[in-house]
Specification:
By secondary structure, this protein is mainly α. The chain has one domain (4-212). The protein has helices spanning 10-36, 60-81, 86-105, 119-146, 151-176, 182-212. The longest helix is centred in the C-terminal third of the chain and has 31 residues, at 182-212.
Length: 214
């Protein structure tokens, strides 16, 4: 274990802990938001519909909190990654970039279904696409980073990346054809990334705690 990592203080651990809190905040927000919106289906409807233009103002602070936590988590991973090589640094940067894009997305709500596309709606689509890219890149880079150090951890990240790609393609295809399971595929995609984030945060926090007691 790098000697400098052993000197990490509570600030570093707090940044890492943000990655554990972020998935919990996101899941709770989506569940509560779905319950508050009559007729909303977690199987068929997109998550973005919860905060589409003209709707979901009460949920926007929670999603902002989630993305802020992701940004902080990326910063914590980046501080840690300086001891683990460029692939881990890239993974951390992609995590932070996803959080930053999510914060910007607050000003670009999705257009309600069946309405003409607006500039903000188009911006939402573009930002969502870039967020998908950062998520996949973060998980793949993490798998590469751990390949020579911890094959089990690398395999875990690789499986998460595979699930994100496959379910993401299914979600895109379902959205293009107005399929009835688009919301389910989207939740599998995002859920895989959230699970990766949660496990990565727990493992990193444990490593900091062990280093602190060495």
């Amino acid at each position: 274990m790098p000697e400098d990592l052993q000197r990490g203080d509570w600030h570093d651990r707090a940044l890492i802990a943000a990655g554990i809190a972020a998935p919990v905040v996101y899941a709770a927000t989506v569940i509560i938001g779905g319950a508050l919106r009559p007729g909303y289906s977690h199987i068929a409807n997109a998550i973005s519909e919860l905060i589409e233009r003209g709707e979901g103002a009460a949920l926007e602070p929670a999603f902002l909190l989630y993305n802020l936590l992701v940004l902080l988590f990326g910063g914590g991973l980046l501080l840690e990654a300086q001891f683990f090589g460029r692939a881990r640094q890239l993974s951390a940067i992609m995590v932070a970039a996803g959080g930053a894009l999510g914060l910007v997305m607050a000003w670009f709500p999705q257009d309600p279904l069946g309405t003409p596309m607006t500039v903000t709606g188009a911006g939402h689509v573009v930002l969502a696409a870039f967020m998908s890219i950062t998520s996949i890149a973060a998980v793949i880079a993490d798998a590469v980073a751990w390949w020579h150090m911890d094959r089990r951890r690398a395999a875990f990240s690789a499986r998460c990346a595979g699930l994100i790609v496959i379910s993401g393609l299914l979600a895109a295809a379902s959205a293009a054809t107005a399929g009835p399971f688009m919301g389910l595929f989207e939740r599998i995609t995002i859920g895989a990334y959230l699970f990766w984030m949660l496990v990565t945060g727990i493992r990193s926090l444990r490593r900091h705690e062990l280093a602190h007691h060495v």
